[in-house]
Amino acid sequence: MKLFFLLFALISVLASKGQEKKIEPVAKLLTKFYFKQLTGGVVLLEAKLDTISEPLNFILDTGSGGISLDSTTIDYFNIPHSPSGRTVSGIAGVREVDFARNHTLHLPGLAVDSLDFYINDYDVLSRVYGTKIDGVIGYSFLRRYIVKLNYDSLTMEVYSPGAIRYPRKGTVLKPVFTALPIQVMKIRDDKNITGRFYIDTGAGLCFLVSKKFNEDSSLLMSKRKPVTIQVQGLGGKKLMELSVMKKVSIGPYTFSKVPVNILDDEYNALSYPFVGGVVGNDILRRFNVIINYPKREFHLLPNSHYKDHFDYSYTGMNMYYFDGLIYADEIIENSPADKGGLKKDDLIMGVNNNFTNDISVYKDLLNVVGQKVQLVILRDEVPMIIKFKVGRIR
Q1: What is the rounded radius of gyration, in angstroms, for the C-alpha atoms of the chain?
Q2: How far, in Å, CA of 160 to CA of 198, rounded?
Q3: What CATH number belongs to 29-159?
Q4: pLDDT score of 372
Q5: Residue 55, SS3 per DSSP
Q6: pLDDT value for 235
Q7: Per the count of CB atoms within 10 A, which of 72, 111, 281, 285 is most buried?
Q8: Hey, do 29-159 and 171-283 end up sharing a CATH topology, with the first three levels equal?
Q9: What are the helix (H) ranges across 277-353?
């Protein structure tokens, strides 16, 4: 009888512990839809806001600590907003922002409510990508869901938080999280370095390091001379150096001869020395990615783009889209475009006999190293032909 009571007590204790242990719910598929891909692999989503019937364009950005709307979009739809007392930092400046509070974002098949949008000026992004950018979707959305990005089919799946089975192949990253994911990575050029880098799907580049990180680590101090490019970001335009790094490793995956941007981060948007730079979406698009903010995990599975060539082309020019037309931006001195005679604000009518007026197509046509290109332009209402040879990042 005594043994019976002991066994009964033991079973009761075990049953009690089993009841106390929480069983994690299985992640459920909430919606699946297509996305568009911009230059550098950047993901563009269509969504609607509140009761507004017109679809808006949002960039999916793990490098954003919130969710935001473009100031012209706010004005066009007369969306109320108020000062927040907060600032946001970017590569070219620091800016105070307003907030538009308590709104609902309608993705295809999914409504996300109680969102506070900060307001930013994305005119620069709209000009660079040749399409209206109405906002950026970051942490405020991503923290609520599990997101699968398939760059082969250009589809995005959104799941509820919970237990999810990752593909057998691939690898799981466990980055450190602030509002942004920060991954420890190994990189090599003149020496081997281990550093912390933001995982940034909103960055249409391969890899970026701050100038201070580069100097302190003596990473890119070889005789290889970087070229100068112009980039546009929060606060305006900024010159940056562009070079090539021997090795970049993310998890078990290593890429060779990777284009790397070197940023003089005077506003410390990268939070150096805690973070040394950014791994951008021109690397991340080579994987099908599962973004699991609730578990603080990323799963990477190499896809059909894994062995795509990196872009080593260099023209020394940017283009921007304005009022339905494409123009040359400021031209870097002594660059191929400068030597060919191109000037700022030249109206670009065609590239290599392509007259589609599509900025993404024109950029692709100018990305073939060593190719002689022909631009049909309009300068002071006079048509001209500009020719030059596309250079190479060494």
Answers
A1: 24
A2: 24
A3: 2.40.70.10
A4: 94
A5: coil
A6: 56
A7: 281
A8: yes
A9: 281-284, 336-339
Sequence-distant (≥ 6) Cβ neighbours of residue 248 within 8 angstroms? 185, 187, 206, 207, 254, 255, 258, 260, 279, 283
Q: Sheet containing 297-302: which strands, arranged edge to edge?
A: 29-34, 155-159, 146-150, 287-292, 297-302, 171-173
Q: State the amino acid at position 92 in one-letter form.
A: A
Q: What is the average per-residue pLDDT within 289-305?
A: 98
Q: Are 35 and 154 in contact (CB under 8 A)?
A: yes
CATH topology for the 171-283 domain: Cathepsin D, subunit A; domain 1 (2.40.70)
> Cα–Cα distance between 218 and 290 in angstroms, integer?
34
- How far lies 15's CA from each of 1, 2, 3, 5, 18, in Å? 21, 20, 18, 15, 5
Q: Which CATH architecture has domain 313-392?
A: Roll (2.30)
At 41 the pLDDT is: 92
Closest by Cα among 58, 246, 288 to 154: 288
DSSP state of 51: T
- What is the residue type of 60? L
* Percentage of residues of the chain with pLDDT beyond 70: 91
- Residue 350 and residue 375 in contact, taking contact as beta carbons nearer than 8 Å: yes
Prediction pTM value:
0.89
Beta strand 56-60 with 135-137: parallel, antiparallel or unpaired?
parallel
Q: Look at residues 170, 202, 195, 252 and name the one whose alpha carbon lies nearest to residue 41.
A: 202
* Across 215-231, average pLDDT: 81
The domain locations on the chain are 29-159, 171-283, 313-392
Residues 205 and 194: their CA atoms lie apart, in Å, by 20
Q: Which residues contact 1 (CB under 8 A, 6 or more apart)?
A: none
Q: How far apart are CA 267 and CA 272, in angstroms?
A: 10
